[in-house]
Structure formats: structure tokens, C-alpha cells
Amino acid sequence: MTTIDSLTLQANKKSQLRNKMRQARHQLTQQVQTDRANQLCDNLKQWSVFQSADRLAMYLAQDGELSLDPLIKHCWHLQKQTFLPVLRPLPPNRLWFAPYHRSTKLQPNRYNIPEPNNTPQLNCRASQLNLVLFPLVAFDNKGGRLGMGGGFYDRTFEHLIHKNKRPLFVGIAHPEQQVSELPTEQWDIPLDAVVTSEKIFEFNTPAR
Ligand SMILES: Nc1nc2c(c(=O)[nH]1)N(C=O)[C@@H](CNc1ccc(C(=O)N[C@@H](CCC(=O)O)C(=O)O)cc1)CN2
Ligand SMILES: Nc1ncnc2c1ncn2[C@@H]1O[C@H](COP(=O)(O)OP(=O)(O)OP(=O)(O)O)[C@@H](O)[C@H]1O
């Protein structure tokens, strides 16, 4: 098989798994979502990694993702700085991280996810974040992850993978989103940990 064929096969496999895992989280009731968001917040509050971080990249949940809303409110209460991803307008598809606080005005991006107006002088450089919470579609027990398929997070953080000083990369997911093994590709950013509403998985990723 040529490399192109095997890449296409891999992409199809990922796309099928993505659809299946997205369907699974669409089935969760609003009550389950709310309870889990609170449990997730409790788990993170007790984790030393979260306690020592003061510049954190969050996301606003969509498509059945596990919500960070209780955690974000807790961060504001503690006066930690929180940032949200903003889609950069030009290729290659990367993200900016814009400040997010109680009075931040939001507007929908092209995927209908609310994001702050871009404020270049206030954005946090990727390398200056302490903790990045990645929205996951699936994860495995080695730090492999599957996102929405835009490659936004992979491209945004690729230059930091081998740096000693870089943010901690932590995936957030529902327990059902764990799979035995995900196909890995050269551009995939390995996660240092995954936190669900049930537990914290810490991985031994090479750069740390
Ligand atoms: N909450 C949240 N915010 C996020 C992300 C995320 O995964 N979750 N992103 C993580 O990268 C970025 C947005 N990336 C996204 C990539 C694809 C789709 C998506 O829904 N794709 C649709 C097709 C939409 C269309 O083309 O009109 C689909 O695949 O069905 C959404 C967000 C930045 N913000
Ligand atoms: N560092 C990179 N450089 C060039 N292309 C990339 C890079 N990272 C990802 N891509 C491209 O983006 C596409 C989507 O990647 P992938 O399926 O790994 O997305 P994902 O990890 O699910 O999405 P996200 O990173 O937004 O959560 C791939 O087809 C790949 O070609």
C-alpha cells in the first residue's frame, strides 16, 4: 500500500470513530451533563497541577462536550486568568487564546462556538499558558487523543512539544470517550493527562 493510501485509510478510521463517539455524547441527558461538569470541577480543584496553574486555556462546551463552566467560575473566584480559543482567520488553522472574564463579550465563530473578539495585545502566547484543557472526542490510555478533526490544537502547540518549558496538556472527556487505542499520527500532540468526571489519568509523556 502506498503512503497516501494508508493515510486515507487512517483518516477514514478516525472519522468513523469520531462520528461514533460524538453520537455517544449526544445521548447524555442535561442532568448527567450538569452533574458531570460539577464532578469534573471537584476533581480538578483537588489536583496540585490545577492548583498551581494561574494562566489556563479553557473552552466553551459544544456538541455534548464535558462543560468547564463550573471550573471557569471557580477560576474567576480564585483570580486565575482564563483564556478561550479564537480561530485565527487565515490558514494554517491555528488558535489564539484570548482573555475570558465575567464581562467578556462573545460572538459565534464559524462553527457556532462563542468566542471573544480577538484582542491581539491581550492574548496569551501559547508558551505562556501553564495549563491547556483540550476538548476531546476520544482518548486512550497512552495519552493519544482524537479531537474534532480540524487539527487546530495540533498546529497551535506543535512548536512546543519538545520544549522543556511548555504548558501541561490535559484532555477533558466523558468516561465513555475512553477507547483501548487510537491511531497516532506524526502531528498528534500527546497529552500529559486526561481528566474525566470520574478520575485523573496521568501519562508519562516523553517531553516531561
Ligand atoms: N468547545 C470547543 N471549542 C473549540 C474546539 C473544540 O473542539 N471544542 N476546537 C477544536 O479544534 C476549535 C474549533 N474546531 C472545530 C472543528 C470542527 C468543528 C465541527 O463541528 N465540525 C463539523 C462541521 C462544521 C462545518 O464545517 O460547518 C463536523 O465535523 O460535523 C467544530 C469545531 C476551537 N474551539
Ligand atoms: N502540525 C500540523 N501540521 C500540518 N497539518 C496538520 C498538523 N496537525 C494536524 N494537521 C492536519 O489537520 C488534520 C486534522 O488532524 P487530526 O485528525 O489529528 O485533528 P484533531 O486532533 O482531531 O483536531 P484538533 O487538533 O483540532 O483537536 C489532519 O488531516 C492533518 O493533515
Automatic annotation (TrEMBL):
Transmembrane segments: none
Residues binding ATP, per UniProt: K14, S15, Q16, L17, R18, R145, L146, G147, M148, G149, G150, G151, F152, Y153
Record's keyword terms, sorted: ATP-binding, Coiled coil, Ligase, Magnesium, Metal-binding, Nucleotide-binding
Residues noted as binding substrate in the record, renumbered to the chain: L60, E65
Naturally occurring in which organism (per UniProt): Pleionea mediterranea
PANTHER family recorded: 5-FORMYLTETRAHYDROFOLATE CYCLO-LIGASE, ATPASE INHIBITOR/5-FORMYLTETRAHYDROFOLATE CYCLO-LIGASE
Protein name: 5-formyltetrahydrofolate cyclo-ligase
Cofactor requirements of the protein: Mg(2+)
Domain of life: Bacteria
Catalytic activity: (6S)-5-formyl-5,6,7,8-tetrahydrofolate + ATP = (6R)-5,10-methenyltetrahydrofolate + ADP + phosphate
First-level EC class: ligase
EC number: 6.3.3.2
Family: Belongs to the 5-formyltetrahydrofolate cyclo-ligase family.
Coiled-coil annotated spans: 7-34
GO molecular function annotations of the record: 5-formyltetrahydrofolate cyclo-ligase activity; ATP binding; metal ion binding
Biological process (GO), any one: folic acid-containing compound biosynthetic process
